[in-house]
Design brief:
Layout (H helix, E strand, L loop, with lengths): L1 H16 L15 E4 L5 E5 L4 E4 L7 E9 L2 E9 L9 H16 E14 L2 E12 L1 H8 L10 E10 L2 E9 L2 H13 L2 E2 L1
Antiparallel strand pairs: 1-2, 2-10, 3-4, 4-5, 5-9, 6-7, 7-8, 8-9
Helix pairs in contact: 1-2
């Protein structure tokens, strides 16, 4: 249970605080860029320039985050390394707990639109979509970056994957269901785990 608590805190940070780096992002470009982690364990198409943030290890968990802004949308990919390997049978419960934590921390009365479990290159993953009015703290973080969402509905599409002691999450925050279906889907599908 301690591992679940630690993992939950780490991904709560990923899902919730991933937007802190947005203020340092460069202006969006018109074309997607392939971004590959230095360790080479994943690549993803990012819609604009990427800013990296590395956090200080907390209880054996190190998280690195890369964020891009395009228009009123935010795209984040995060990689966490745990001190110990996560038992395979515990991964589905951890993924569920992290999805629920994202819903509670990012939205006021958030709603789950879709959810599916998938395997991707040996990683157990949870692909989920949330919607709702952003929480006050999420609104504050987004406003710091020039995106004014106030109380309008936003959408979050996430693909959260865990294998051994590694976790990767791709997360898109989007202003409309149309962007969710097009840009959110293509961003999530572009995550290539190795």
């Amino acid at each position: 249970m301690n591992l679940l608590t630690n993992a939950n805190k780490a991904f709560h940070i990923i899902a919730y605080l991933g937007l802190i780096t947005l203020s340092a992002c460069a202006p969006a470009s018109s074309q997607d860029q392939v971004f590959t982690s230095k360790e080479g364990n994943f690549s993803i198409l990012m819609p604009s320039s990427v800013v990296e943030e590395v956090n200080t290890p907390v209880k054996g968990i190190t998280t690195r985050r890369w964020t891009a802004i395009k228009g009123e949308s935010a795209y984040t990919v995060a990689q966490s390394t745990f001190a110990k390997k996560i038992a395979t049978e515990k991964i589905p419960k951890i993924l569920q707990a992290l999805s629920e934590a994202a819903k509670k921390s990012n939205f006021v009365n958030g709603k789950r639109i879709a959810e599916s479990s998938v395997m991707k290159n040996g990683y157990k993953c949870l692909d989920f979509t949330l919607t709702g009015v952003p929480s006050p703290s999420l609104q504050t973080e987004i406003k710091k970056n020039g995106i004014n969402i106030n109380t309008k509905l936003i959408y979050q599409r996430s693909l959260l994957c865990i294998k051994d002691n590694q976790a990767v999450e791709a997360l898109a925050l989007l202003p409309s269901s149309e962007e969710l279906k097009s840009k959110g889907a293509s961003f999530i599908q572009s995550l290539n785990l190795k």
